[in-house]
Amino acid sequence: MVTVENVRKSYSSVLAVDDLSFQAKPGEIFGLIGPNGAGKSTTIRMIMNIIAPDSGRILFDGKPLAESDKSRIGYLPEERGLYKKAKLGEVLEYLAAIKGAAKADARASINTWLARFDLMEWKNRKVSELSKGMAQKAQFIGAVAHNPSVVFFDEPFSGLDPLAQDQLLGVMTELKEKGATILFSTHIMEHAEKICERILLMHKGRMVCTGTMGEIKARYGKNAVQLEFDGDAGFIKHLDYVASVSAYPRWIEVELKEGADSNTLYSALAGRLKVRRFETVAPSLHKIFITQVGGVGEADGTALPGAAVSDSGVGAQAGEANDVQA
Amino acid sequence: MSKLKHVVRHEFRLTAANKAYVILTILGPFLIFAVTVLPSLLTQEPGAFAAGKPIAVYQAPEALRGALSASFATMDIKVESVDDEAVAKQSVLSGDWVGLLSVEAGWPDSGKAVWYSKSGSEVALYGTAQAALEAAAREIKIVESGIDPALVAKVLQSPSFEVVKLEAGGGETKAGADSFFSVLMTALVFVMIIYMTVLLYGQMIGRSVVTEKTSKTVEIMLSSVTSRELMFGKILGLGLAGILQYAIWIGMVFVLRTVVGPVFNMTIPSGLSMVNVLWLVVFFILAFFLYSSAYAAMGAASEDEQHLGQMAWPLLIFLMVPFVMIGTLTSNPDSRISVILSIFPMTSPIVMLIRILVSEPPVWQIALCLGLLVAAVAGMALLAAKIFRVGILMTGKRPRLKEVIKWVRVRG
User: Fold this and answer.
1) Among A142, A210, B272, B321, which residue has the least CB neighbours within 10 Å?
2) Contacts of A119 by beta carbon, 8 Å cutoff, 6+ apart
3) What's the gap in Å between the CA of A53 and the closest CA on chain B?
C-alpha cells in the first residue's frame, strides 16, 4: 500500500505538485494520468524518495520509506539510462544486486525475462549496441528482475512498438495478479483504459479527478444510451427524465437528464419496443482527458471547480461531479 | 554496506576494462624505464654506437692522434690513420669505419678539422673527438710557444672537489653529479606518475558522474542506493583500480631491481628504492581521494562534460603548480616556498614527495603534511557528499556558486 498525503513540491517559481493525495493498493494497477508537465514524474520521484516533497507525507504500509524498503520496489524512470559501456547481462545483474537480490536468483530471473523479451542474444553485448526499443525493454527488466512487490513505471510504453506495448500490458497484468502494487504514469489513455483499476488524472500539479475507471466514466460521461430497435420509438423523447434524443428509424441515442438511471429507461421500453441492442455509452478515457484538461486550460490555468468534489478523497461519489462539465 | 560493495565492484570493473587504464598500466613501467634507466645505460656505453668498428683519422698530427686514441680507448674504439681521404669516405659510407676525422694541413693555426659520418648524429663520438681536438690544439700551441708542457699541466690541474650527502643517522654518502641526476630523474618520473594518475582518475570520476547524471542512470541508481553509497562507491571502485595499477608497477620495479638489473648488469638509479616507491603510493592514495572527491562534487554540480571542464580548472592548476615548479623544487627542496607547498594539502602530495626524494625534510613537517592531508580528504569527502546529493539531480540549469554553497549548508 502506497499512500500519498497532501504532497506539495515546487521548483523555484513553478508549483510542480500541489496538494496531491491518493492511495495505491496491493494487487491493483493505479494509473497516474495527465498531459506532459502535469507533475507525474515529480510525484513518482517523490514516492521513490529521489527528491523530497516540500510538505506532505508519503507512506509505505503506513510508514515513511526506509532505505531497506528500496529492495522491494522496482522503478522504471521516465528517462532511460543504463551504463552504456557495460554488457547488458552485467548491468542487469548489477541492478538486481544493489536491490539486494541473491546472485543465483537474479541470474535466473534475468534469463527468464531476457528470453521473454527476445533479448537473450544481446545479453553479452554492450548496452550501447541496443536499439531504443530494446533498451527500453532492458530497462523494464532492470525494474522487475528482483521480484519487487511495488513497482513504479514512469511512461513505460514510450518508445515501444504496438507489439511490445501489448507484451508489456500483459506483463503488467501478470504482476498485478501476483499481488504487486503497480503505479504507472502515462499520457496515452488507451493503455490506462485497458489495465488500470483506478486512475488519478492530474494537470498542472493538481488532481483533476480520481476514482475507479467506472466511477470516472460515470462521472464524466454524458449519461447516454444508444438503442437499436424495431417499432416506434417516438415516445422516448417525451419521457420526463430524457434530456434529448437523436433519432433514426431503427437507431436512437438518448441523453438522460442528470441523476437519471438508464435502468429506468430500460424498464420503460419493455413491451413497447423490440430492443435489439441497449448500450449505455461510456465515454473513452481519452475523451474525458481531453475535456477535463482542455477545460482546465481555458479556465486561466487554475484547477477546475469540480476538483473540489474529488478532494473528499479517493473514490469520490459518482454523479456528484456533473457540474464539472459546465 | 553490501550495496556499497556492489557499487565499488561495478565501478572497479568498468574502470579496469577502460582502454586508457589498460594502456597506462602497461606503458607506465616502460615510461619509468625509459626516463630513469635508459639515459644511464646510454651514457655508460656510448661505444655501443661503434660496435667494435674503428675511427679513421686523416693527416692528424702526432699529438692529436695520441689524444684521440686515449679518449676513444675508454669507449673501446680504435683510432687508425688512413692515407686516402676519398677511400676512407667510401669506407665510412659502406659502414667499415664509424667515422672519419679529416684534418686539413696547417691545423690548428689555419685550416679546420672535419668529422665525416653516415648519420651525423653520434653526439657522443664527435663530442669526444672535439674534446680531444681541443686538448691536442692546446698542447701543440703550448709546445710551439716554448713553454714546458709539464708546467702547464701543473698550472691547469683542477683542485679536487666532492659533494657529500649527510644523513640523519650519521651516515654519509658521496653524492656526485651522477647520483643527483638519478634522483632528479626519479623525482620527475614520480611526479609525472602522480600527476597523470590523479588527473586521469579525477577526470574519470567527474566524467562518470556527469554521464550518469545526463543519461539519467542516476535515477535508477538512487532508487536502490543512497547518493553517498553511489559517490563513495565510485571513488573507492576507481581507487581500487588505481591501487591495482600501482601494485603492478611496483611489481615491475621490484623485478627490475632484483632480476633485470643484476642480469643485464645495469645500475638501477638509487632514487628508485622501495622506500621511495612506498612514499609514492602513500601520496598517490591521499591525493587520489582528495582530488576524486572534488571531481565527483564538480561532476554532480555541472551540466555536461564541457561545463565540468570549465569548473575543474582550479583543480588542474593546483595539480600543475608543483609539476611546473619541479626544477625549483628539486634544486631548493627546503626553501620557504617548498615547505609551504609541501604542507598545503592541494599541492602537498607532490611537493612533499619531491622533498622526501631529494632532501630530508624534518619529521614534523612530514607529519603535519600527512595530518593536514588526511583532514583535507575527510573534509573534502563530506563537502563533496553534500554537493553530490543535491547536484546529481539538478538538471536544466547551471548552478551558481551561491546555490552550491546553499546545498552544502542544507542539513543531512
Assistant:
1) B321
2) A88, A134, A137, A138, A141
3) 14
